[in-house]
């Protein structure tokens, strides 16, 4: 940097930055910086510790903001990152304790580790859809961060990304996110509303540990791995929902495929492992009282094949069956009580109440299938009378297997295979 620029900077506190290292004698006086149009990369620690720096004007053309470039600029209150910037380096804007307004534009792709760490004045932020990765510790200890808007396109949320963001109230992960890093939301004590969307595959160890305001959570059907103590210490958590419970089979992750068998045929070993066994994802969740699982997709598809009035009749009955819950989209949840015994959690189906309710739903579906089949049979017999004298092969009717089973049971032939 030439002497005229140094002298001007010392007198006015303004610097037109055109690259290179910023002289030490300027760092203590700089208040305003404008990045030159030809600067494509701001070097590592270029303005680190410029405690009087209040304003930075970026020009379109800057592509990379290096590691610690503005770390510890405690007077900086707002910053707008231009659309040409694709990468924010590690700790690029961390410890800017008065930085309250951050505008990130489309074009930014990667926000590296600790980029906004310990920015206590930051209250809200919207991530562009072009961002694919949040590095570890990105927003760690942003104590007053209340709201973050994550957009479709984001894929990975790194370790400790939002840890100790104690004012954060809600979080929705886009469907493009496949992994929540270890301890990603640990100590987010005000986090009460979490929506994890389908597409998520991995919930890392301790991802929501000690989120003491969280009361319920739904685990997407795409999740195959819930890490060690992922929800441990969520002291207000009372309800866990598995919208695609029957699909979560990893290491006896949930329950076996015979969930919807006959009364008493529920296998809860997988559920007990998931809730209470290693890796102890719900350890110290002392208020956890209910686990809810969506019923088999096969059952849902059978209901979809019934006429609307039959479906409505079944759903009306479901509302009155114990330990079943009907969601707005028509999904049926099977509810299992969770009890705490000597600080250990245990999933129970007391008196097989859930199993019996599920079996009753199966009976209702089979009844309506049989009723529909009988209508078809009546039509076929009526047609055979019209076509009397002709071969009756056209009068054969395909019947649903459950309907066949009910007919065989009615005639005392349970266990026999129907010929047709």
TrEMBL record:
It comes from the Eukaryota. It holds the Pfam family LRR_5. PANTHER family: IG-LIKE DOMAIN-CONTAINING PROTEIN, SURFACE ANTIGEN. This is Leucine-rich repeat domain-containing protein. It comes from Thalassiosira oceanica. The lineage of its organism: Eukaryota, Sar, Stramenopiles, Ochrophyta, Bacillariophyta.
């Amino acid at each position: 940097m030439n002497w005229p620029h140094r002298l001007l900077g010392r007198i006015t506190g303004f610097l037109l930055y055109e690259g290179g290292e910023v002289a030490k004698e300027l760092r203590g006086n700089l208040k305003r910086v404008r990045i030159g149009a030809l600067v494509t990369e701001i070097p590592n620690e270029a303005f680190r510790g410029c405690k009087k720096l209040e304003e930075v004007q970026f020009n379109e053309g800057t592509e990379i903001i290096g590691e610690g470039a503005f770390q510890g600029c405690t007077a900086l209150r707002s910053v707008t990152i231009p659309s040409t910037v694709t990468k924010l380096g590690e700790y690029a804007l961390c410890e800017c304790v008065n930085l309250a307004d951050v505008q990130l534009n489309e074009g930014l792709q990667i926000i590296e580790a600790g980029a906004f760490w310990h920015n206590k004045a930051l209250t809200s932020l919207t991530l562009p859809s072009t961002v694919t990765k949040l590095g570890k510790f990105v927003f760690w200890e942003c104590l007053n961060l209340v709201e973050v808007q994550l957009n479709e396109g984001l894929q990975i949320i790194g370790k400790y990304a939002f840890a100790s963001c104690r004012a954060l109230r809600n979080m929705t992960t886009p469907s493009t996110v496949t992994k929540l890093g270890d301890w990603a939301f640990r100590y987010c004590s005000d986090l009460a509303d979490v929506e994890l969307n389908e597409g998520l595959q991995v919930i890392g160890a301790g991802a929501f540990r000690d989120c003491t305001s969280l009361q319920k959570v739904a685990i997407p059907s795409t999740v195959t791995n819930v890490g060690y103590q992922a929800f441990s210490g969520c002291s207000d958590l009372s309800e866990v929902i598995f919208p695609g419970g029957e699909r979560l089979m990893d290491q006896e992750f949930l329950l076996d495929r015979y969930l919807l068998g006959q009364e008493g045929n529920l296998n809860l070993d997988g559920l007990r492992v998931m809730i209470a066994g290693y890796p102890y994802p719900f350890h110290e969740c002392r208020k956890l009282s209910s686990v809810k699982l969506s019923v088999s997709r096969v059952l849902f598809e059978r209901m979809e094949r019934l006429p609307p009035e039959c479906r409505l009749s079944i759903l009306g009955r479901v509302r009155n069956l114990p330990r079943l819950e009907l969601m707005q989209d028509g999904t049926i949840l099977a509810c299992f009580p969770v009890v705490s015994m000597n600080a250990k959690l245990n999933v129970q189906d007391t008196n097989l109440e859930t199993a019996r309710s599920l079996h009753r739903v199966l009976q209702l579906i089979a009844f309506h299938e049989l009723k529909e089949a009988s209508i078809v049979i009546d039509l076929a017999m009526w047609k055979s009378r019209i076509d009397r004298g002709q071969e009756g092969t056209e009068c054969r009717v395909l019947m649903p297997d459950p309907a066949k089973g009910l007919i065989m049971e009615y005639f005392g032939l349970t266990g026999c295979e129907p010929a047709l």
